[in-house]
UniProtKB/TrEMBL annotation:
A GO term from the CC aspect: endomembrane system
Keyword terms: Membrane, Transmembrane, Transmembrane helix
Chief location category: membrane
Catalytic reaction(s) noted: 12-hexadecanoyloxy-octadecanoate + H2O = 12-hydroxyoctadecanoate + hexadecanoate + H(+); 12-octadecanoyloxy-octadecanoate + H2O = 12-hydroxyoctadecanoate + octadecanoate + H(+); 12-(9Z-octadecenoyloxy)-octadecanoate + H2O = 12-hydroxyoctadecanoate + (9Z)-octadecenoate + H(+); 9-octadecanoyloxy-octadecanoate + H2O = 9-hydroxy-octadecanoate + octadecanoate + H(+)
Name of the molecule in the record: Androgen-induced gene 1 protein-like isoform X4
Family annotation (InterPro entries): ADTRP_AIG1
Compartments, record wording: Endomembrane system
Membrane topology reported for the UniProt record: Multi-pass membrane protein
Pfam entry (one): Far-17a_AIG1
Transmembrane segments: 12-36, 57-77, 97-116, 128-146, 166-186
The keyword Transmembrane appears for this protein: yes
Family to which the UniProt record says this protein belongs: Belongs to the AIG1 family.
């Protein structure tokens, strides 16, 4: 279906940058498929292959926090005033069912992935660094779009002055980083027992040179 003048440049701007987030989800689940076919999906592989390490990092740093970020922020603003995120005039090009596929399903599937598939989170330094770089690049791109088109990707920014816009974007970045920590916490509660390691103080070496738990 082509875009007519009613939608015009606003649709082109919005759908020219927003899909990057859903492309990321598609890439992540493609990596999951490759790992299931040719990698290792056991709870705690001693020497995980590269594809498994990529899968685990992508989930922690990108897939989970960004999917949750999109779902929570979109539906929160939608509940306040839909014109701030998805103007009614776009319904002809973005129907109700497609809206839920893009803003609801990603949350459902990423939560299922969290609780049904084991992974090892990276260190907080590495995970937060990757997420910060991605979000900073994505949010900066919204300014590039505005500079070239004089249109904001997110209509909510039309009702803000410049200090409010800067604060809003920084708040979104901070919220996304908090979601990373939430994901790390949930993953540790759900799967942490698979990665618990013996403390040197509580282990001894047997005749084969392997560490076993010391029994007091």
């Amino acid at each position: 279906m082509g875009m007519n003048e009613e939608c015009g440049e606003e649709c082109a701007v919005r759908f020219g940058v927003v899909p990057a987030i859903w492309i990321l989800q598609a890439v992540y689940f493609t990596v999951c498929l490759i790992n299931d076919a040719a990698g290792d999906h056991s709870p705690n592989p001693p020497n995980p292959p590269l594809i498994r390490r990529i899968k685990d990092y992508m989930f922690a740093a990108f897939a989970f926090p960004i999917a949750m970020f999109v779902g929570v922020t979109f539906w929160s603003i939608m509940a306040i005033d839909r014109e701030l995120v998805l103007p009614k005039k776009l319904d002809a090009y973005f129907p109700f069912w497609l809206n839920h596929i893009m803003h609801t399903n990603i949350v459902i599937f990423i939560l299922l992935e969290m609780f049904l598939s084991c992974r090892k989170y990276p260190t907080k330094k590495k995970g937060l660094a990757g997420l910060t770089i991605f979000m900073a690049t994505y949010l900066s791109w919204t300014f590039v779009i505005y500079y070239n088109t004089n249109l904001w990707v997110y209509p909510v920014m039309n009702v803000m002055d410049w200090p409010s816009r800067i604060f809003f974007l920084l708040a979104m970045l901070a919220f996304c980083l908090i979601l990373y920590l939430v994901g790390d916490f949930i993953n540790n509660k759900r799967w942490g027992h698979n990665y618990s390691k013996l403390s040197p103080k509580n282990s001894v070496k047997n005749s084969n040179g392997k560490s076993t738990k010391k029994i007091n």
